[in-house]
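Notes to self, Cytochrome P450:
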Amino acid sequence: WRRQRRAANDACKQDVVGQYHPMETAEAITLAADLLTLPEDWKAHFRRRAASLIISIVYDHPPLDKEDCSGTSFETIAQITDRIMKWCKTWKASCGLLAMDGVYPPPSLIDGVKERMASGTIRSCFTTNLIDNMSSNKLSSEENAWLAGTMYIGGSETSATMLPWFLIAMLLYPEVQQRAQDEIDTVVGRSRAPNFADFDQLPYIQAVVKELLRWRSPVLLGIPHTTSEDDWYDGMFIPKGTSCLPHIWLLNRDPELFGPDAADFNPARFLDGTGRLRTDMPADHFSYGFGRRICVGQHVANDILFIDIAVILWSTKIERGRDANGELIPMDRDGYLEHGLVVNPLPFDCKILPRFPEVSSILDNEKELRGL
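result:
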């Protein structure tokens, strides 16, 4: 576990993840174009984007279309997760490898990476990092294949979960949407889409990302930790060796940390009086976990959310759905559905509209420049 953890961390460090920015930007552009072409299919667009981007980051696989994500080419996330859960109940700790009783991610994916590395026709990706550092990581080919597969599974499911929550936040808090779009218009304008070169000049968008992860964590509970010694908490004795599950959802709403409006979506809580990001907060959120088991993909996830949100808000208006009488369709702001390991919002209606007349042609030009 430690060797795989170290290898994954090295491939996802903050000073490394910039190599994934071209893939992330291309997928954000494609997502925005899809949303404007068929806005009623936003759920399918989010699922496609999640699977396509993560498989690009992990394997430098070409972008997927909707047919690729239908389950004919790749197993659904739920199917793969179910197989992992069954395996976790039966694996033998004494075996030297992380074996799954013969169940592995499709070998063609990692074999394809090796072939393209040999021919010099691949961009840097998570798997190339693993292969280049096999000796220092002390991982076998099978362990590399399994680690790459688990990164794809975890990244796809959590990534697909956050964007629907983002839509809900924009529907419930239109003033946040407006302020974010004002910042984007000031910094980026309307002649091109946002990119990572704009990152430092978009502090409010960065705050929206932080607040989204705090307000609606993709998971309710964190990874279990075991107490290393006897302890007491609030008058209760916790013996050494006790498994403790952090209540992420509740911690993210602690009014002592996030203020009396902790239940509300308010990105401004992360900004100082000058509009820059605050540096005095003890924590942004707890959605990535704690300690040695903190999410190794947190920097990648932050970058993905930043560029997706920036491009979506630059290109679209997100509005509440209305019924046949023109009345706003009610929304359940607090309801959720647990699906596998993540928490999804209840079904809701929304309208996704172009922000200005030229936006679709600009997105088409951006796609053409990237060969999409």
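- Residues 2-369 form a domain with the Cytochrome p450 fold (CATH 1.10.630.10).
- Confidence is low (pLDDT under 50) at residues 70-82, 84-104.
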